[in-house]
C-alpha cells in the first residue's frame, strides 16, 4: 500500500509576481529619486561646495531607500573595505545601489551608465568618475582623478569586467584602472555579488545584460515581492605588484568568493 501524500505548504512560500506591486514600486522609485534630488539641491545652495565624501554618504542613504522600495534585502559576508579600492563582478544596475548601501563609495564607471534612467542620475550626483574605456587618453585622465579622490580618503568602487553578465562567469578583468591603486600603494578589496529571486530567474530578471531595455526590465523586477542580494568581501590585497599581476590575483579571488572554478590564465586585459 502506497504511503499517503502530504501536500503541506513549503516553509518559505514562493512569492508570485504582482502587477499592482510593480506600479507602486515604480512610483516609489520616482518619488525617492525626486526627494534625493531636492536634498542635493538644498545642500548645494550652501556657502561651500559639496565634498566627494559627502556625495558618497548621500548616495549611500539614497541607495538604502531605493532598495527598501524595490524589496531588495542585502546580506554581507566579510569585512567592508576601509580604504583604497573595491572591485567586484558586475551583474545589474542593482549592483551600484547594493554596494553603496553597504558602505559609502565613489564609483568609477563607463560613460554609458550616465544614460541609464534614474541610476545614471543618482551616481552622477554621487560624484561618479565617468570614463570612456576605448580612449587611452580618457583612461589616463581618469587614473589621475582616481588618485585625487583616493587622497580624500574615499573608497573607489569599480567593475573591472567592464560590462554585465548573467552571473554564470566572471569576464576578463581590465587592468588599466588599477594603476591608481598601484601608484599609490593602496589596498584593493575583492568582492563578489550574487542574487536570489524566489519564484523567478536571476539571469533573466535580475541581471541586466544582453539586449535588455531598462524600463521593461525594471517594471518586471518590481513585480516580485523580494530580491535577495549577497555581498561577499575578501581580504584586501596590497597593490605592490604591477597592475596585470594584481588584476590576475583579484579575479582569482572573485572566482573563489563566488564559488567558480579557478581560471589558469588569459583573463587580464591591459586596456
Question: What does this protein structure show overall?
Answer:
By secondary structure, this protein is α/β, with parallel strands linked by helices. The chain has one domain: 3-Layer(aba) Sandwich (Cobalt-precorrin-4 Transmethylase, domain 1). It contains nine helices and nine strands. The chain has a seven-stranded mixed β-sheet, with helices on both faces. A two-stranded parallel sheet has the order 6-9.
Low-confidence stretches: 1-14
- CATH class assignment: Alpha Beta
CATH architecture call: 3-Layer(aba) Sandwich
Coarse shape: globular
CATH topology: Cobalt-precorrin-4 Transmethylase, domain 1
Let me know the average pLDDT: 87
Whole-number total of structural domains: 1
Helix percent band: 40-55%
Q: Kindly report the name of the CATH homologous superfamily.
A: Tetrapyrrole methylase, N-terminal domain
Provide the gyration radius in Å. Answer: 20 Å
Helix and strand content put the structural class at alpha/beta
E-strand count: 9
Listing every helix as H and every strand as E from the N terminus to the C terminus, the arrangement reads HHEEHEHEHEEHEHHEHE
Strand content: 15-25%
Amino acid at each position: 500500500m502506497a504511503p499517503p501524500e502530504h501536500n503541506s505548504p513549503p516553509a518559505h512560500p514562493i512569492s508570485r509576481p504582482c502587477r499592482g506591486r510593480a506600479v507602486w514600486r515604480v512610483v516609489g522609485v520616482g518619488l525617492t529619486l525626486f526627494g534625493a534630488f531636492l536634498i542635493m539641491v538644498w545642500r548645494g545652495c550652501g556657502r561651500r561646495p559639496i565634498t566627494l565624501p559627502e556625495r558618497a554618504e548621500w548616495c549611500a542613504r539614497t541607495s538604502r531607500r531605493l532598495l527598501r522600495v524595490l524589496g531588495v534585502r542585502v546580506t554581507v559576508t566579510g569585512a567592508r573595505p576601509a580604504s583604497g579600492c573595491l572591485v567586484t563582478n558586475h551583474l545589474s544596475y542593482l549592483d551600484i545601489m547594493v554596494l553603496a548601501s553597504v558602505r559609502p563609495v565613489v564609483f568609477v564607471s563607463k560613460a554609458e551608465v550616465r544614460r541609464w534612467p534614474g541610476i545614471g542620475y543618482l551616481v552622477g550626483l554621487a560624484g561618479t568618475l565617468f570614463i570612456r574605456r576605448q580612449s587611452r587618453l580618457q583612461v589616463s585622465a581618469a587614473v589621475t582623478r582616481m588618485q585625487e579622490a583616493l587622497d580624500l580618503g574615499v573608497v573607489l568602487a569599480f567593475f573591472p569586467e567592464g560590462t554585465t553578465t548573467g552571473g554564470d562567469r566572471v569576464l576578463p578583468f581590465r587592468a588599466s584602472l588599477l594603476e591608481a591603486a598601484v601608484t599609490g600603494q593602496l589596498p584593493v578589496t575583492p568582492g563578489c555579488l550574487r542574487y536570489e529571486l524566489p519564484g523567478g530567474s536571476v539571469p533573466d530578471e535580475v541581471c541586466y545584460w544582453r539586449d535588455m531595455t531598462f524600463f521593461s526590465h525594471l517594471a518586471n523586477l518590481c513585480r516580485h515581492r523580494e530580491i535577495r542580494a549577497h555581498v561577499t568581501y575578501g581580504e584586501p590585497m596590497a597593490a605592490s605588484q604591477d597592475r596585470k599581476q594584481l588584476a590576475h590575483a583579484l579575479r582569482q579571488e572573485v572566482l573563489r568568493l563566488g564559488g567558480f572554478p579557478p581560471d589558469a590564465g588569459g583573463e587580464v586585459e591591459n586596456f
